[in-house]
Design brief:
Layout lengths: L1 H16 L4 H8 L3 H8 L9 H15 L3 H56 L3 E5 L5 E3 L2 E3 L4 E3 L5 E5 L5 E5 L2 E5 L4 E4 L4
Helix pairs in contact: 4-5
Length: 190
């Protein structure tokens, strides 16, 4: 962070101009040497939590005879910018989580609907005989009017008589048109 780097450089320049070593600063302030080096490099996010970093900056600046309020003001400004960016990332992450949740729910609903349709198709009659002509025909000696249909059972034999138009046998996804006057229909299982 550029502003953090400026704070660290200001502290380092003040220390070097007074010809004080990092170990002397550590002994007089109680701040470990590795933290002082990170502070001087502007890597405050690797030092400690912001609360403690504020205290380190204040203690270090006071030891060097600097006014800590200016440095702390820069630190606060940059910290609030970082927190704002972090909030944006969290909000974007929350939106992404919400989007993934919506996609998951939609996929689950689609899967359940598909499963329901699949089992509904399995539960419906598999084969129907339909009179598509404009006249009644005889289906197993019973009159079957125009547009009417009958469910056919597997292994049964059905007789159709008096067909002058078109009849159809319909199974799941297929339809066979029949234009013969008298015929038999037998449905066989798979």
């Amino acid at each position: 962070m550029e502003k953090w780097l400026r704070i660290g450089e200001a502290l380092k320049q003040a220390r070097e101009s007074k010809q004080v070593s990092v170990s002397e600063v550590a002994q007089n302030t109680g701040i470990p040497e590795w933290k002082i080096r990170l502070i001087e490099d502007g890597q405050f996010d690797r030092v400690d939590a912001p609360f403690y970093v504020r205290n380190y900056i204040k203690t270090y600046a006071e030891f060097l005879g600097l006014d800590p309020s200016e440095l702390l003001g820069q630190f606060e400004q940059k910290t609030s910018e970082v927190e704002t960016k972090t909030r944006r990332v969290l909000i974007n992450g929350s939106l992404m989580t919400l989007l993934l949740l919506v996609i998951f729910v939609a996929a689950s609903v689609f899967f359940m609907y598909s499963a329901w349709r699949f089992f509904t198709v399995l539960g419906t009659p598999k084969v129907q005989f339909m009179n598509q002509s404009d006249r009644p025909i005889y289906f197993n000696e019973m009159s079957l009017g125009p547009g009417e249909s009958v469910v056919l059972q597997t292994g049964q034999r059905y007789r159709v008589a008096g067909n002058t138009g078109v009849c159809a046998v319909r199974s799941t996804g297929k339809e066979w048109k029949i234009r013969v006057e008298n015929f038999e229909v037998v449905v066989w299982g798979k």
